[in-house]
Amino acid sequence: MSLADRLAAARRDRDVVSTDRETRPLGGGTPRHRRAGDPFAALKRTVHQTLLDSLGPKLYDSNLTQSELEQQVRTTLQEVLAQDDTPLTVADRARVAQEIADDILGYGPLEPYLRDVDVSEVMVNGFDAIYVERGGRIHEVEGSFADENHLRRTIDKIVARVGRRVDESSPMVDARLPDGSRVNAVIPPLAIDGSLLTIRKFSADPYTVSDLVGFGTLTSDTAAFLERCVQGRLNILVSGGTGAGKTTTLNVLSSFIPGDERVVTIEDAAELQLHQDHVLRLESRPPNIEGKGEVRIRDLVRNALRMRPDRIVVGEIRDAAALDMLQAMNTGHDGSICTVHANSPRDVLSRVETMVLMAGVDLPVRAIREQVSSAVDLIVHLSRFRDGTRHLTHITEVVGMEGDIITLQDIFVFDHSAGFDESGRSLGTLRSTGLRPRFVDKLADSGVYIEPSMLGLEKHGQ
């Protein structure tokens, strides 16, 4: 059948499908607002199907490069559109062509937002509700999928490219796009009102310490202080809530590691971008369809100890791997850095304590706390403010044990006393507490010196 015949056959069938979408209830029976139907939905379905029929196996030809495939798709797409008799303006034709190309070559209606450098997160709350995060704030956008099947096909395409799967027997999946962006998908029956998809975009040009200073996340003094702490091989925990900027801060701290050291990074989804010469990247693996082959963060931490690392950098500790990480810190692997979900520096210690207990070891709580206090030197805590900005709010030293309690000492704390401006942005800043860290002498023994000006001690008369 010729291209024209396929197009004519598809056109005969396309008018039976209404372009008006039905309103679907959200959980609790609240109706989702009605969106205007896409006037070109039927045309896009027709051209899309005709294009697939025309190209066929070429879309999966491993001998074709990505640029060659894109060229073939766009050439055939223009031929198909030229033979359709639907009246279109030049702008409408270009838009339809771009949306169909995005669907075949990329991830459909998500492509414009994945290309947008100002978008940091894309959230799909069902086929007809897409939200994005820009500048720390969430906005609903006009794009949408044609239906639930369209969304499911896009999710399948994403996870299949990285060797993962998602179906009714395994309805949740964590994956990443080829560029490193993190993906989480949940489908029915777990997602009651339709499939859910969340993509945290990966920055091709990662933020540097000067970027974070410019954003107000930290000050130049605290940046210089943290650089000396990393160079002095202190064990550091980076903590904060979801979206607080832990991974970005971890990447910046890791950039302070001297270039002649052997660094092993361990992550669930590889995000860290270190530019040192001697970096070995490890990534965990979920179980396969038979439930076998899983490689956990804990397994990778244990294995990293056999790789002669100078530093171990862990993307996130969330389970019994905490015990192995503490053991590593306490057995000569100084200078390790990792992130932990927590609401405050004090909560970090409780979280680590709980995760150690998850390992199933029969240790008294005091013994665990002694391990934590001797292993961890510094906690760097971040928070996401109500205006969407991220700020480093605490730099806290782990001093040691006092009875059964781990004692902490704040070195820098965010000062909220300045209040907020008219737009709700915080006017506060990170300030020194005037306290001298106990590890200053330890760093000096390693040839790393922290000037009093970095700590603001001159202002406090010390």
Topology:
Blueprint: H1 3-14, H2 41-55, H3 66-83, H4 90-105, H5 111-115, E1 119-125, E2 130-134, E3 137-141, H6 148-160, E4 172-176, E5 182-186, E6 196-200, H7 209-215, H8 220-231, E7 236-240, H9 246-254, E8 263-267, E9 279-283, H10 297-304, E10 311-314, H11 321-329, E11 337-341, H12 345-357, H13 365-375, E12 378-384, E13 390-402, E14 405-415, E15 429-432, H14 440-445, H15 452-455
Parallel strand pairs: 7-11, 7-12, 8-9, 8-10, 10-11
Antiparallel strand pairs: 1-2, 1-6, 2-3, 4-5, 5-6, 12-13, 13-14, 14-15
Helix pairs in contact: 1-2, 2-3, 2-4, 3-4, 10-11, 12-13
Low-confidence stretches: 13-35
The secondary-structure class comes to alpha/beta
Strands, count = 15
What oligomeric state do these chains adopt?
single chain
